[in-house]
Fold Aminopeptidase N.
Amino acid sequence: PTIRLTDYAPPAYLVDAVHLTFRLDPAATRVAARLSMRPNPHAAPGQDLRLDGEKLTLRAAAIDGARIELNPDAEGLTVPAGALPDGPFTWEAEVEIAPKDNTALEGLYMSKGMYCTQCEAEGFRKITFFPDRPDVMATYTVRIEGDQPVLLSNGNPTAQGPGWAEWHDPHPKPSYLFALVAGDLVSHDDGFVTASGREVALKIYVRPGDQHKCAYAMDALKRSMRWDETEYGREYDLDLFMIVAVDDFNMGAMENKGLNIFNSKYVLASPETATDRDYELIEGIIAHEYFHNWTGNRITCRDWFQLCLKEGLTVFRDQQFSGDQRSRPVKRIEDVQMLRTRQFREDAGPLAHPVRPQEYIEINNFYTATVYEKGAEVIGMLHRLVGADAYRRALDLYFERHDGQACTIEDWIEVFEDATGRDLTQFARWYSQAGTPRLGVEESFEGDTYTLTLTQSTPPTPGQAEKRPLVIPVAAGLLDRQGAEVVPTRMLELTEARQSFTFEGLAARPVPSLLRGFSAPVILNRTADDAERAFLLANDTDPFNKWEAGHALTRDVLARMVRAPDTPADPELLTALVAALDDPALDPAFKALVLGFPTAEDVFRTVRQDSPPPDPAEVRVALIRLDTALARLIPDLPERIRALAVPGRYSPDADSAGRRALSGRLLGLLTRLEPDAATARAVFARTDNMTETMQALGLLVRSDNADAALAAFHARWKDDPLVLDKWFSVQAALTPPERAVETVQALTEHADFDWKTPNRLRAVVGSFAMGNMAGFHRADGAGYRFLADWLIKLDPVNPQTTARLAGAFETWRQFDEGRQALILHQLQRIADRDALSRDTTEIVGRILDAP
Ligand code: ARG
Ligand code: ZN
């Protein structure tokens, strides 16, 4: 059934305290629950008690100690009001569950012999009967009985003995933050003293043998804890903070109170096994989950429609953190690239929805780029509009006013209105209106006055035909024709559909630099010519827009090359890119981004705007042609690569990573000119770190020179699952399109292809469908059939991961009629399956509804 925001009603009963006892067994775990409950004073009295529960075998239930016979249905059970006392009462239930059969990885499940949990959003109902909704907050006392050496739950340990342990979490929390872990684990330990002097023990639990891969995550954790104190005034609030790394995990990580559970991919790192990008992601995700302790746990969501209240804010906070730890401009460009590839794509298709959705069928389908990344952009705009000081005052008020509560977006907006005196009614439309706004630009210059006229419009999205104007902060600066900045950055506040802004006292017509720092998540439709873009690439003082100018120029040149295949690679673009490469004022990480070409999908979309859909294979050809032309223009590539080598031991710091990123890009160019990929082979043979290994291996796969390297890599790393994932994924993403389907087919038949582990499945099926555009969109539809076969096979096992992968089809309406018909056939084939999960039914149904 469809759940609607407008149907929200407060819970009929509240839970003050939860007592849980687990007797662990893979096939028959016993969970005894004792809940102290009472009628909610803010709800209608005399209601039945409804408890959620799925896949639970009820052994016994009692109210105030008296046994009661109940017949659960598929989604829970109902205790009639008549069977309940007037005031507070105690609910008790004993249920049996089978963690080893739980392949959906929600609730209590097993991963490589260890017990672990994932309760967000609605996994707790697979552990015991409970009002499983975030506005029911309780303290938890947990006893675990099991023969595992390590038995963990939230909060502080209170007692333990051989075969048992007891935990107590004094902070009232919603059930989605409950966690339990039991297994043969070892910990990497450290400590932290908070600003007010609380001593906190820090423990990262991993499988024996992985202890030496925890140092970076621990360091990132301590830096996150300090940063939240200095930047937000937020201290940690328990004596213990634990992280557990788990191999089987549907998502990235989970912020359970005091016991974060992570996909091991985002914890474990060593120079030999992790790339620079892995280190960066570990830092960002460790920070993200830690920051949730205040934005998510202390202040949580009233209902799941408010998900962006915690996720958008926490992503914004982790982005600020990473920007502070590394290069701000580089981080901003990376975040915008990710927003455009994932969120703009979502916003432009059948799965578009507002940052705060109005309805859903399966909430797991709404952990999306829109809720997370666009949600973070909305906070970023608020920050820009009110300024850093007012932002901090508003956040202080938010924590003071709402600590311990389950809140809504209205509460959040009100805090900002009260702290700043601004009326945010119109701004709040960002939360309810889906789609990416288009920004239009008109200019005029008369006398000494430059007038900028900005227009805004948002195309219709599913269920939202009419769009209203938003508040759009447009950071703008002006340059003169010599390249000097004549008007520094000003924040223009666009609130109307069409609005003019004037700049006086100018000697000549200026060149505008608009949407600096990507000040709003919009598409800027400015018909700038190549010369202006090259000018901004060379002269803009705003690093984001400097990059953006080069990026847009490259994208437009590529689009022209696709439309007319005999168009030569534009010499002006090539000269501008080489000039950027030679600019001593730019750092290597930034140069790597400027020289990094847009994705095939980005070019495809650009062509599609004013021409019929191109063949993805032709987009790929244009990218190779431009790459080759650029490579020919840089004569001394080998020397440049050598000069970028980082001396000494490997370190994942941002400067070293930036040098490796640029040298990897140059190696990619050089490999275009070497039929046998000699230099990439040499790098692969001699490097001691995974970053350069993967750069070289990717180029060998791309150029069809990888047989020996792949065999050597496999032999060396076959026992390290995270590294082996890279071996699978590089082949799925980079094998040339003619053989890509056959390659992924063979990979899924490989002895190491363990498809029930989401990381491994995503490494092949996800990397192919989302990362190998020309291969996936092969004209005969073999790529589509491959994906559909896997979705059909996986759905009964793991619905959440299936539904997520099905998103690869969300762009289907963008393609030519032949491909659309082939995709439609596969979507139909999936939709026709009996007993398709709710997750996949919803996603496939929405994709099929695409206009
Ligand atoms: N709250 C987690 C995070 O953002 C994500 C949990 C997602 N879980 C899910 N079932 N979709 O850090
Ligand atoms: Zn989060």
